[in-house]
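pasting Exocyst complex component for the record, 811 residues
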Amino acid sequence: MERGKMAEAESLETAAEHERILREIESTDTACIGPTLRSVYDGEEHGRFMEKLETRIRNHDREIEKMCNFHYQGFVDSITELLKVRGEAQKLKNQVTDTNRKLQHEGKELVIAMEELKQCRLQQRNISATVDKLMLCLPVLEMYSKLRDQMKTKRHYPALKTLEHLEHTYLPQVSHYRFCKVMVDNIPKLREEIKDVSMSDLKDFLESIRKHSDKIGETAMKQAQQQRNLDNIILQQPRIGSKRKFKKDAYTIFDTEIESTSPKSEQDSGILDVEDEEDDEEIPGAQDLVDFSPVYRCLHIYSVLGARETFENYYRKQRRKQARLVLQPPSNMHETLDGYRKYFNQIVGFFVVEDHILHTTQGLVNRAYIDELWEMALSKTIAALRTHSSYCSDPNLVLDLKNLIVLFADTLQVYGFPVNQLFDMLLEIRDQYSETLLKKWAGIFRNILDSDNYSPIPVTSEEMYKKVVGQFPFQDTELEKQPFPKKFPFSEFVPKVYNQIKEFIYACLKFSEDLHLSSTEVDDMIRKSTNLLLTRTLSNSLQNVIKRKNIGLTELVQIIINTTHLEKSCKYLEEFITNITNVLPETVHTTKLYGTTTFKDARHAAEEEIYTNLNQKIDQFLQLADYDWMTGDLGNKASDYLVDLIAFLRSTFAVFTHLPGKVAQTACMSACKHLATSLMQLLLEAEVRQLTLGALQQFNLDVRECEQFARSGPVPGFQEDTLQLAFIDLRQLLDLFIQWDWSTYLADYGQPNCKYLRVNPVTALTLLEKMKDTSRKNNMFAQFRKNERDKQKLIDTVAKQLRGLVSSHHS
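structre below
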């Protein structure tokens, strides 16, 4: 039973599945029916399904037949109507065909016209599109053409601006064209070309500046000189802003339009034509000579290209190299002033350019860079000047060099450069200038002293008298009262030397000008230099003249007189210096002139030379002495040589009338002492081994002649017999021997008031020894042998006693 239930359940299930398949076949598209049929064949109930399918087909046929039967009459009616319409349709077809044929025939031309219109419309559209594209490309091509023109005419900065517009504005709009790609590829090359060409222009500018820096510096120094002259003219007026004005004028320079499109302004590379500028009344500003546009262009181009730092480094490096070249002085610079001037012009030109670059560009150079260059320049310049100026021996060249250095310093000071070290160095050069002046004046003094006649200046008229007084401060009321012709006491070298001292002071003053020194410093400098002139140069010149071998007593006497008057003129030199420096001598720390000491020393040297010269003349006369020491004749007159000597001394001392009294007296006393000493030495010299009483008598006559000369008062001012005291030693010695007064001498020896106080026992013994053993050669004593023997015994006795005195004196 259960099996029957199960079979029944399976049968129902199969029937339901078949029903589903049939519905699916009915509702599914024919192309997709494959899977459905496949499920039928996959099952076991294929037969039963076919049965059901046949049953379902039959059912559908019945339904179709029913439906056809229901609509058959309507179908028949429709066929009937369709048959009726077929005839009318044929007629309509014929009409349409005929109408079409006519239409085709009539519209053939229109179709052709329409085809032509279509082609025209197409061309018009193409032309419009082409014009639109060309309108986009033309600005690009125009800009590129403009760029090439600017490159060709070397207007590089505008070319760079054009290149920027082309790259960023125009090319992006037409970037899909091939020619644009070519342009884009060329842009870096064009930039590099502009960069190279602008750098080449800068190099040309730097080279031109290097060659013409001396011209730039010369113009700047001329302008500074012009301004200084103007300042001197209006010295009494306020100088408000004068230097500022000069510097402002100096900066009214070539005002360059950086973006100028003028080919001329683009091609200028440095120095403008200034050949005829010297004929103009007004000196142009230093920077008016220079076109700085290459620097500006190159700076802007590198800034736009993003390489400003590279440009700055290159510019500074090149200018440092040029600075070292400029600061290298030529080896022969010291020979002429033009050598120094060219050297200074180059330095000034260099720094004028740099100062202008500093003030007209932003950051190309800075103050630290300028200060570094100036410090280097200052040290090298000062070192070069120290070296080369030391070779200079011409004071005029040293003075011109000083003026040039001052102008050099003033010029650079206007541009803001510190120049204190230059003025400090000028103080060093001042010492050298003083030395060169001293050497020059040594030659001047030597010429004056060599050419002087050492005779009082004669004047025959009032005009000549005033001329001399105008040259030398001399006042003498007695001389003024004397009638013409008359003579000044001094020779021509006095006014000449005095005026040369004043000229030296003027020369020293010239160097101190424009050194920004106070009056006290100028006064001190002049006084110290003048003291060197007096104490060293003039003193040496006078000493050389005084020490000359061929100098005569007359010249020496005149030198003493001249130096006396020059000594008196020192106060006038003091006043002269005070007048030109406006510094009173009472001012603290004021140096005093040492002229008085100089002339005193020269006078003393001349006096000593007079004494020496007189003594030498005396020695020359004494060399003519020819005594016969063994003579027995008694003379009755002085020797000829001594008479000549006395005559010479009288004439010589007659010249001493203008000398100071003490000088003449000292000279006279010195001459008498030297004469007495020389006569004593002549009497006692070792070569005279024997002498007779007759020889002593002749010698005594000569001494009496000397004493007579002393008593005659050859030089006024001696008291009583003072001059005779020079011969007292000789007189007492001769009196002792001639009078043979040995008893008195020996008895009074050692007494302060003894008669023969000046007779030294040694001297007496020496002379006595010479008188021994003269009997054999003396005819006077030949007949009186006994008297001779007595005399000899007496001499021996006296000699013995004298030896006793000598030995007791030494003990």
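The radius of gyration is 69 Å.
The longest helix spans residues 46-152.
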